[in-house]
Design a protein that fits this description.
- The complex is a heterodimer of chains A (685) and B (369).
- By secondary structure, chain A is mostly beta strands.
- Helix content of chain A is 7%, strand content 56%.
- Chain A has one domain: TonB-dependent receptor, beta-barrel domain (Maltoporin, Chain A, Beta Barrel).
- Chain A contains seven helices and 38 strands.
- In chain A, the strands form seven sheets. Chain A has a 22-stranded antiparallel β-barrel. Chain A has a five-stranded mixed sheet with strand order 1-6-7-4-5.
- Chain B has 369 residues and is mostly beta strands.
- Helices cover 6% and strands 45% of the residues of chain B.
- Chain B has two helices and 29 strands.
- Chain B has helices at residues 3-17, 68-73, and strands at 39-43, 53-58, 63-65, 81-87, 90-95, 100-105, 111-116, 125-132, 135-140, 145-149, 156-161, 176-179, 182-186, 193-198, 203-209, 215-220, 225-230, 233-235, 240-242, 247-252, 258-263, 271-275, 281-286, 288-293, 318-323, 330-334, 341-347, 353-361, 363-368.
- In chain B, the strands form eight sheets. Chain B has a four-stranded antiparallel sheet with strand order 3-2-1-29.
- In chain B, a hairpin with a 6-residue loop joins strand 10 (145-149) and strand 11 (156-161).
- Chain B is globular.
- Classes of the chains: A mainly beta (685), B mainly beta (369).
- At the A-B interface, strand 21, strand 27 and strand 34 of A face helix 1, strand 7 and strand 27 of B.
Chain lengths: 685, 369
């Protein structure tokens, strides 16, 4: 019986924790998932993807999606601490080459083209799927590196559910999470709130400074001072409201609305001698995102429509708190973003061997960017832009072991259209016993410039062309289950070229300008593995890991004969990275150990190593957590302690940005039962 | 697999992974002792990266040492190095975005003193000018004050309010030159002013208004004439801070009247001026290096030194400029892509290339021992 259960789980494409998987299967809207049980979903033909399930995403409420991605995927996350801007880069590309969808709607900033993953609490995401390279074409265009699909989902439980988590940690950190849900067969509602605050003024030894001690004008000693992280505070509130309804006729409606109010100090550099008591350097963001959705399952069809709206105001202030009580604005920037979104999509599978899909997505972006400080009077720009992306795809299974797929995507922005983006995918089952599958894909892709790239004043360059790339990859994946273990893994080799890469460089007037200058060759290997060992009736060990080798070389035309950046690794992109997560569940105890590694990174385009700031040395990081769960008749309770930077390393991830040393956080989670027994809707029905 | 054996292997695996790893820490301070002539080259680095560096070049041996400030002091120079000058055995280095002015020994490169932010009156220090052995001025990009300190003790003395109206909000002050008891400073950022400071009263006593925006560089010749070059600001579709046309001005320091002005080629080129040691010859970069006698009425049409042109026709963009006051060797820099080690060209006073060497990121200021 056990073997049967394990095999069913495997065939459904499952790893990770059983409980989380039950939740996912229960509410899967995907046609392929519900109609092709026990087979490889045609929708995934040739797709290289990494799926992060609820168990990973909901590890602890202090984590943002940036933290999750950095450990549980081969994506490189550039960050310099909690609540600081964090961007994610696939396969050695840039942050703007990562497209991010939230419940179907793209949430990349229309101004910058990037997403700040530190603004996404991992507890607000129930399912995250990373599409690497060409695999992103089926989801959206512009993902020259890849795309990340974030989904929220109903808890799918009957009655009222309440969960509250309180976290208290080092550096005056407080995290609160509350979730209220109500559900029956037709209705599911969920209200979530995360509120996190911290002084974040951790102490560190500042190796970038030195204090000299003089006696009688003679230097007698010097030492690196202990300093505190200045202006690193944050005060983030997130609220997410979801309502879902499903009819007896196969219709499903949903609304998800996510509000963020964030106030963050922008930490001073370690080489800054100014005092945060005299200067304020702060970013305030208010964002609301709403998506309405409709899905309808009808025989061989699945119809869906979505509508959405995003509003965001972003304030950035840098001013002096003058002793004479007169404040001077150095920067007083205000940006207002409005985005309207719509989608129509259809999936059609007339026979199990064929699957067709089509979708159209439209976005209307309106951005007003201005700076009112006396140093930058006037509007940076005030622009609207209409964007559209449409995709047609067909997937065919000509033989039991073989599946092929093709996508054609067309995109337009403003008055410009980009050439049709073609993509081809291939799947071949090498061994059914090992679930060993070979995959391959090939695609062109384009990313058009962001509004800042085109219009920001001063510097914006309306003559910019879309970046374009060509990528192909191939690899194998396997799944293997035996009585006491469940192994899953994949390895992919990829190769891609990006031309007309947009790069901002300073000009002679003192401001920065973008231009299409680079040609970049990214290639390498990605490997992931996720393994579960059922050591005894009450003991499960889960070991997952990933490794990436991502050379990302500049082959752009040399600026002049002094340009030494040709064939050099791009700045801040590690050539090697790896991470391992080990989770041990024993009775009501959970232990977790996370280890991650990044190889050296260069800070200059010429990969200069002759001076200290030319590179960042490699570093390892270890985090540990221990959790004890209690269950009483009236409630469930868990107590969890996390130790970050377990080995107390002193390190930086970005130049002049020291990271915190060993620190702790304690979480208390309580889930009252309200008289429920087993109320999983899937089991009830 | 045996259960205990498995756990043992697992623990071993964890131990292998558990090696702690610091990627920052102490470094040994190197002992330098340079003698004779030498050139300090300040490399401003990238904004918000904290990677400004100092290079030292020996013109006799043609050897260059990069990152000497860090190597000698086991501390970073800071974020966005702006200028370096030498006075009485000390090199004064203004590091703009770190809010600090360093003083280092010109032979050992060891820190002798540092002027840190005093209140909020010194925000982004740009240039240092030694008024006398007990008084120095520091100009600032953001602060509406010129700060005063003692160049021997590095003690903060006070500040001179620039008292400028907020016409397009400028308060910045840049380079300084002295004529008698008056110090002139050009206001680069969104301005067209030159301020006159009375060094006895430490107050702004007068100003000169230019017809062109953003005076970027200023020198004074042997005849008491101020030479000022503007970058012309910039004109964009959304707003206008000038017309992009750089101008060269000659101003009498006594009467404070403009005697000559000349529009230069409209271009996005970096513009800088420098004088030779005798202060009778003006050098100017505007794509190429131009040279004129300070008594000439106009810049010559043809450049004195043409920036290097590659085999494939690409011209190097010149970034920094200075002239050795002793032998009039000319030093110009190429910042390449602004994110890699820059290159310095050294020419003889006759415009013959003598040497070419790599320094740090964005070399922008030279000072001669």
């Amino acid at each position: 019986m056990w073997r049967v259960v394990v095999n069913i789980l495997l065939l459904a494409g499952i790893s990770s924790v059983v409980k989380a998987q039950q939740e996912k299967v229960a509410y899967s809207l995907e046609l392929d998932s519900v109609s092709i049980v026990g087979k490889r979903p045609l929708k995934n033909t040739g797709i290289q993807k990494t799926r992060l399930d609820t168990a990973v995403l909901h590890d602890n409420i202090a984590l943002s999606l940036a933290d999750i991605l950095s450990v549980h995927s081969t994506v490189f996350v550039k960050s310099y601490g909690r609540a600081t801007q964090s961007t994610a880069e696939f396969r050695g590309t840039s942050a703007s080459h990562t497209q991010v969808m939230w419940n179907g709607m793209r949430i990349n900033s229309p101004m910058l083209g990037t997403v700040d993953f530190s603004m996404i609490p991992s507890y607000f995401i129930d399912d995250a799927t990373l599409y690497h390279g060409a695999s992103s074409i089926g989801l959206t265009g512009g993902g020259l590196g890849g795309a990340i699909d974030l989904q929220t989902k109903p808890l799918q439980k009957d009655g009222i559910q309440v969960k509250y988590i309180q976290g208290i940690g080092s550096f005056d950190t407080y995290d609160q999470f509350l979730r209220l849900t109500y559900g029956n067969y037709h209705w599911q509602t969920s209200s979530r709130v995360v509120y996190s605050t911290a002084k974040n003024d951790y102490k560190y030894t500042n190796y970038d400074k030195k204090t000299d001690v003089y006696e009688n004008d003679i230097l007698v000693n010097s030492y690196h001072p202990k300093e505190r992280n200045k202006s690193g505070y944050f005060d983030d509130l997130h609220a997410l409201q979801e309502i879902y309804y499903r009819s007896n006729r196969g219709h499903r409606w949903g609304i998800s609305s996510w509000y963020t109010a964030s106030k963050r100090g922008l930490p001073f550099l370690s080489v800054d001698y100014k005092q945060d008591s005299e200067f304020t350097n702060e970013q305030k963001i208010h964002t609301s995102r709403t998506v309405l959705s409709w899905d309808y399952l009808q025989d061989c069809f699945k119809w869906s429509a979505k509508g959405g709206y995003v509003y965001s105001d972003i304030a950035y202030d840098y001013f002096t708190k003058r002793q004479d009580a007169v404040s001077t604005d150095i920067t007083h920037s205000r940006c207002y973003v409005n985005t309207w979104y719509g989608q129509l999509a259809v999936e059609y599978s007339p026979v199990p061997r064929l699957f067709f899909s089509a979708d159209v997505n439209i976005y209307e972006n309106q951005v007003k960017s201005k700076d009112k400080s006396p140093y930058h009077i006037g509007n940076n720009y005030d622009k609207k832009r209409f964007e559209m992306t449409a995709c047609l795809s067909a997937r065919w299974k000509p033989a039991e072991r073989l599946a092929i797929a093709a996508c054609l995507r067309e995109e337009m922005y403003g008055k410009n259209t980009i050439p049709v983006i073609p993509a081809l995918f291939l799947d071949y089952v090498i061994s059914e016993r090992w679930n060993l599958v070979a995959k391959a894909s090939i695609a062109r892709n384009y990313r058009y410039p962001s509004l800042d790239d085109l219009y920001f004043q001063p510097g914006g360059n309306p003559e910019l062309e879309a970046e374009h790339g060509f990528t192909y990859d191939g690899g194998v994946e396997f799944q293997l289950a035996q009585k006491h273990y469940l192994l899953k893994g994949n390895a992919t080799v990829f190769n891609s070229y990006i031309d007309d890469w947009i790069l901002w460089t300073p000009n002679t007037k003192g401001f920065w300008q973008p231009s299409n200058v680079r040609e970049v060759h990214n290639y390498g290997v990605e490997m992931t593995s996720d393994n579960m060992f059922f050591l005894s009736k009450n003991t499960v060990l889960d070991i997952s890991g990933n490794f990436a080798w991502t050379p990302s070389k500049n082959y752009g035309e040399q600026i002049n004969s002094n340009d030494a950046s040709y064939e050099k690794q791009l700045c801040y992109i590690p050539e090697y990275s790896a991470a391992v997560t080990t989770r041990l569940s024993w009775k009501n105890w959970n232990f977790s150990y996370k280890w991650s590694y990044y190889s050296e990174r260069f800070t200059t385009t010429s990969n200069e190593v002759s001076y200290i700031t030319g590179r960042l040395k490699p570093y390892y990081m270890s985090d540990f957590s221990i959790e004890k769960r209690f269950s009483w008749k009236w409630t469930e309770l868990s107590v969890k302690t996390i130790v970050n930077n377990l080995l107390d390393s002193e390190y930086v991830t970005v130049l002049s940005r020291p990271m915190p040393r060993r620190n702790y956080e304690l979480f208390l989670e309580i889930s009252p039962k309200f008289g429920r027994k087993n109320n999983n809707l899937n089991q009830l029905k | 697999m045996n259960y205990k054996c498995f756990l043992s292997n697992l623990m071993l695996l964890l131990l292998l992974f558990s090696g702690g790893c610091d990627n920052v820490g102490d470094n040994e301070e190197e002992e330098f002792s340079v003698s004779g002539d030498g050139v300090f080259i300040l490399n401003e680095g990238n904004f918000n990266a904290g990677n400004a560096t100092l290079s030292y070049y020996d013109p006799v041996t043609k050897e260059v040492e990069n990152g000497v400030f860090y190597r000698a002091n086991d501390r970073k120079l800071g974020d966005t190095g702006q200028s370096v000058i030498i006075y009485d055995g000390t090199a004064y280095i203004a590091v703009e975005n770190s809010g600090i002015v360093w003083g280092i020994d010109i032979n050992t490169f060891k820190v002798q003193g540092q002027l840190e932010t005093e209140g909020t009156k010194m925000i982004n220090p740009r240039f240092v000018h030694i008024v006398n052995e007990n008084k120095a001025y520091v100009t600032d990009l953001y602060s509406p004050y010129v700060n005063i300190f003692n160049p021997k003790t590095f003690k903060y003395i006070g500040a001179i309010p620039t008292k400028q109206p907020s016409n397009r909000g400028y308060s910045s002050t840049e380079e300084m030159v002295q004529y008698g008891k008056y110090v002139f400073t050009n206001c680069w950022s969104y301005s067209n002013k030159i301020l006159v400071i009375d060094t006895e009263k430490d107050e702004v006593c007068d100003s000169i208004t230019l017809s062109s925006w953003q005076p970027k560089s200023m020198k004074i010749d042997k005849y008491g004439k101020l030479w000022v070059i503007t970058d012309g600001g910039y004109a964009t579709s959304e707003d206008v801070y000038g017309d992009n046309i750089p101008y060269l001005y000659k101003i009498d320091a006594t009467t404070r009247r403009i005697e000559q002005e000349q529009a230069l080629d409209t271009d996005e080129a970096n513009v800088q001026i420098a004088l030779n040691g005798g202060r009778d010859t003006l050098y100017l970069i505007n794509n190429d290096v131009y040279r004129m006698s300070v008594t000439d009425a106009h810049l010559p049409v043809r450049p004195f030194i043409t920036a290097e042109i590659d085999a494939n026709g690409k011209k190097h963009k010149l970034y920094g400029l200075n002239v050795n006051p002793v032998n009039s060797d000319i030093y110009v820099a190429d910042a390449v892509d602004y994110s890699q080690s820059g290159v310095v060209y050294r020419y003889s006073s006759q415009g013959v290339l003598i040497d070419k060497f790599r320094v740090g990121i964005n070399p922008n200021s030279f000072s001669f021992k």
